[in-house]
């Protein structure tokens, strides 16, 4: 099938590469010309395991191409995926100006029937607005369909998530749109949930909000564990062993971040508000998440006494392991709070340091590895649970640190093992 993907970001680039891998003819476009020029030179705009290889292979096989010309791409493609960013506005609402601009351009350039698919995460009723926008901008009586096909991939495992999804959700309002999308996804051999467009849009916001809910729930439980001396990891295992609940996303830590959960929770709260419903459950989810970031600072303070003049060694900056994405990473707020309290920061991240340098500039000392971070630091704080941090030379770390203290913001270590090595161990919901 001839398809085009608008937006060469975390979702668009993976979608384009995977559809090409499945044998389709794919054009990927982005308004950022420098990004397109880089990709053409095999320079990927971000780190995602396996993506570069898949892009290069499909470009060589001539199934995948990149352009900055929407006109060309729309003319040549039957199915058009919109995967542009939908960043949050000041008030938490999703900024949909890119979606509108793209819809206007598609209308102008489409020579005949096109299926326009929302891949970006958008608030419910966006489909209606996309349809309206195309209608008022299209010349003549060219037919088109709008569909919603939300994406559920996670950065760090994006290719696998796309190729082996738990389900594909298709929000459609015509048989033609349904047939085209079912055909496109058939090779994945996975369950397909077909709904109307509005329900599909809500499925995406509801899914992300539910996952955020699970994280805040276990963080709240961790706070109780902290107060009574229980172990939240054991609690999570016991609770998560129930298949109705499931263990995934029951990991206590210093809060969720990234380009999806914070903005999607905010956007869902705003949509509910606009429609006259106070989504207090989600407001509490957001509040607990904010508190977790403050909590880690308090925990550091509890073992270092005054923060002013101390040096904190930060392990992990990206919002999660497996990515260099720093968008809404908890590390940003945590480091900001620590710096406001007068601490110096030494930090290391296996992938995200170039991105982090754009945010922190010279304000923090970027180190070449964990051991350089430890040198002269008053404690080590794990903020992102990279595998690289799980097995370390603790004897060496103990010699390098000013004080042998580990703040395990992601509960990646066995507290007893760390304590036996002579460290003070502070976890989240366990000690
Ligand atoms: N990142 C994720 O893990 C993830 C997962 C599922 C869904 N989503 C959703 O997918 C959407 C895209 O997210 P992302 O992480 O890929 O964003 P991103 O910022 O990585 O990429 C967006 C891309 O769109 C391009 N763009 C913006 N306006 C454009 C326009 N008018 N024409 C052409 N290109 C344009 C940008 O230059 C950028 O390259 C968002 O709605 C997001 O919520 C993201």
How does this structure look, described?
The mean pLDDT is 97. The chain has two domains: 194 residues, Rossmann fold (3-Layer(aba) Sandwich); 219 residues, NAD(P)-binding Rossmann-like Domain (Rossmann fold). The chain has 17 helices and 14 strands. Helices cover 45% and strands 14% of the residues. With 431 residues, the protein is of the alpha/beta class. The protein is elongated, with a radius of gyration of 23 Å. The strands form three sheets. A six-stranded parallel β-sheet has the order 3-2-1-4-5-6, sandwiched between helices. Nicotinamide-adenine-dinucleotide binds next to helix 1 and helix 5.
Question: Which key phrases capture this entry?
Answer:
Rossmann fold; alpha/beta; six-stranded parallel beta sheet; 45% helix; 431 residues
Give helix % range: 40-55%
Number of helices: 17
Tell me the total number of β-strands.
Answer: 14
Strand residues, percent: 5-15%
CATH fold-level label of the largest domain: Rossmann fold
Q: Taking strands numbered 1, 2, ... along the chain, how are they ordered across the largest sheet?
A: 3-2-1-4-5-6
**What's the CATH class of the largest domain, please?**
Alpha Beta
Q: Which value, in Å, is the CA radius of gyration?
A: 23 Å
Structural class: alpha/beta
Mean pLDDT: 97
The set of bound ligands, ions and cofactors reads: nicotinamide-adenine-dinucleotide
Global shape = elongated
Question: Which architecture of the largest domain would the CATH scheme give at its second level?
Answer: 3-Layer(aba) Sandwich
The major pleated sheet works out as: 6 strands, parallel
CATH superfamily of the largest domain: NAD(P)-binding Rossmann-like Domain
Low-confidence stretches: none
As for the number of domains, it is 2
Distance N to C terminus: 56 Å
């Amino acid at each position: 099938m001839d398809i085009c993907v608008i937006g060469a970001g975390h979702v668009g680039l993976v979608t384009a590469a995977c559809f090409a891998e499945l044998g389709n003819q794919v054009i990927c476009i982005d308004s950022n010309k420098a990004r397109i020029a880089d990709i053409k030179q095999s320079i990927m705009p971000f780190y995602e395991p396996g993506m570069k290889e898949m892009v290069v292979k499909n470009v060589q096989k001539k199934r995948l191409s990149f352009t900055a010309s929407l006109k060309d791409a729309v003319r040549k493609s039957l199915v058009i995926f919109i995967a542009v960013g939908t960043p949050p506005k000041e008030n938490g609402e999703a900024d949909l100006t890119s979606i509108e601009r793209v819809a206007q351009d598609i209308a102008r350039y489409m020579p005949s029937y096109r299926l326009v698919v929302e891949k970006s995460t958008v608030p419910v009723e966006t489909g209606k607005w996309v349809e309206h926008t195309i209608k008022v901008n299209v010349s003549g009586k060219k037919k088109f369909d709008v569909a919603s096909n939300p994406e559920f991939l996670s950065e760090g495992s994006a290719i696998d998530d796309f190729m082996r999804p738990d389900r594909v959700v298709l929000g459609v309002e015509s048989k033609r749109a349904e047939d085209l999308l079912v055909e496109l996804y058939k090779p994945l051999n996975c369950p397909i949930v077909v709904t109307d467009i509005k329900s599909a849009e809500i499925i995406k916001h509801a899914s992300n909000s539910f996952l955020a809910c699970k994280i805040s729930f276990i963080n709240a439980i961790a706070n109780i564990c902290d107060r009574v001396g229980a172990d939240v990891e054991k609690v999570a295992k016991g609770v998560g062993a129930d298949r109705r609940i499931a263990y995934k996303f029951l990991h206590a830590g210093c809060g969720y971040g990234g380009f999806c959960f914070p903005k999607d929770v905010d956007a869902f709260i705003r949509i509910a508000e606009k429609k006259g419903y106070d989504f207090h459950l989600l407001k509490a989810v957001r509040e607990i998440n904010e508190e977790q970031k403050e909590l880690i600072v308090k925990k550091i303070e509890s073992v270092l006494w005054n923060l002013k003049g101390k040096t904190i060694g930060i392990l992990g900056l990206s919002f999660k392991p497996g990515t260099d994405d720093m968008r809404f990473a908890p590390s940003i707020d945590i480091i900001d709070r620590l710096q406001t309290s007068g601490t110096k920061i030494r930090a290391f991240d296996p992938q995200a340091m170039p991105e982090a340098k754009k945010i922190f500039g010279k304000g923090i000392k970027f180190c070449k590895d964990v051991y350089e971070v430890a040198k002269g630091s008053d404690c080590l704080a794990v903020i992102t649970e990279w595998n690289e941090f799980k097995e370390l030379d603790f004897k060496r770390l103990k010699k390098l640190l000013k004080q042998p203290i580990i703040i395990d913001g992601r509960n990646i270590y066995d507290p007893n093992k760390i304590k036996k090595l002579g460290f003070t161990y502070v976890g989240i919901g366990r000690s």
